[in-house]
Structures are given as C-alpha cells and as structure tokens.
Amino acid sequence: MVVQQGRPIRLAGQAAPGEAVTATFGAASAATKADAAGRWSLALPAFAAGGPYALKIEGAMVVLSSPDVPEPIAVRYAWGDDPPNTLRNQADLPAVHFRSDDWPTITATAH
Fold it and tell me: Among 4, 29, 100, 102, which has the highest number of CB atoms less than 10 A from its own CB?
C-alpha cells in the first residue's frame, strides 16, 4: 500500500454491525465501531516520507477487498508450494491457508 505523505490516511471496510475495529500504522492508531450496516471508516494522522511502515487492522473477522478487483469471484490466501504466511490472529499465530473456490487444482507433472 502506498500513502501520500503529509495527508491523513483514510481507511474503510466492513465488519459485523457494532464491531470494534482498530487500525495501527507506524506509531499511530485509531479506533471506531462499524455502523448498523457493518461499514466503518477512520483516519490516521499524516506521516512524513519514510518507512516502510506496517499497517495492522484488527477486528473479529477479515474482509478482503481491492479497488483493482471490484467484483471478485474467489479469494485464496497462502496458496501454493511453501507460501509465505503473513496473516496472524489475535494470539499472533499464523492463519491457515484458505480459499473460497472449489475449482480443481492443477499440479505440474514431474518429468
């Protein structure tokens, strides 16, 4: 994710209605609650150029979205041979890989 230096960092997402959501970026953090429709938004203060900074968004569930994929049909996390695992739960344990599709997998045949 790239953010504009000197501008507040605005984040938005979805969660369960009334769910508490906290976002931390660098040393700054902000918290909010999802509205009755499950939407939430918050702003973190502006940062100077630098980094890299880590962004952490905490809530009870994970909702994946990307403006580059407005109508996703499937999601996979940590899929493949020995994938890196960067998603952690509240106990800082790694999340297991997951997929939302049931498409057949394609495995290369060894020669």
Answer: 29
Q: What b/e readout covers 36-60, taking b as 16+ CB neighbours within 10 angstroms? A: eeeebebebeebeeeeeeeeebebe
Predicted local distance difference test score (pLDDT) of residue 35: 92
Instruction: Flag whether pLDDT at 111 surpasses 60.
Output: no
Long-range pairs of 42-50 with CB within 8 A, sequence gap ≥ 24: 42/10, 42/11, 42/12, 43/8, 43/9, 43/10, 43/11, 44/8, 44/9, 44/11, 45/8, 45/9, 46/5, 46/6, 46/7, 46/8, 46/9, 47/3, 47/5, 47/6, 47/9, 48/5, 48/6, 49/5
C-alpha to C-alpha distance for 9 and 105, rounded to whole angstroms = 39
Q: Please state the domain extents for the chain.
A: 9-99
pLDDT at 60 over 80: no
pTM: 0.56
